[in-house]
Amino acid sequence: MGFYDLTVEKTNGEQQAMSDYQGKVVMIVNTATGCGFTPQYKDIESIYEQYHAQGFEIVDVPCNQFAGQTPGNDEEIHEFCQLHYNTQFPQMKKADVNGETAIELFKYLKSQKGFEGFGKGAKALAMSAMLKKIDKDYKNNPEIKWNFTKFIVDRQGNVVARFEPTADMKEVEKCVASLI
């Protein structure tokens, strides 16, 4: 099974086929409306506006698995994002990205790109300290660690990068630009 064989549920209950994105660069991101990383929506929207016409798409999957930071329903989440960040990219139905109830899309992404660390800096240290309390072995499993983990898929459907929420958004943009 490959990336183009997968689907994800839209907010209206229909399935969004990843095969619709063949030939495009895609960012898949699990998001939250009440997280310290929520302001990344601004940067994600900026990248979308800059590269969408050149074949860039975003699959935004709101997720409430991390400290309950996405409590609203799909409509409330969409309204929040449009009101606060003027998002234009589509959002999918709120879903789980870890555990037995994780959607297939995230199971696949994690199988292709595991966790490689949070990098350096204050946010990276804070995330590591927090996760050590939750899962002492967090470094050795591919699970999504927190909201705003981003996967980049190239025009051929290969998962080429995983960016943890602590990653500099300029690095994320640089990766996208290199694939456009």
From TrEMBL:
Pfam families: GSHPx. Gene3D superfamilies: Glutaredoxin. The keyword Transmembrane helix does not apply. The active site is at C35. InterPro entries: Glutathione_peroxidase (IPR000889), GPX_AS (IPR029759), Thioredoxin-like_sf (IPR036249). Keywords: Oxidoreductase, Peroxidase. It comes from the Bacteria. GO terms for molecular function: peroxidase activity. GO terms for biological process: cellular response to oxidative stress. Belongs to the glutathione peroxidase family. PANTHER family: GLUTATHIONE PEROXIDASE (PTHR11592). This is Glutathione peroxidase. It comes from Pseudobutyrivibrio ruminis.
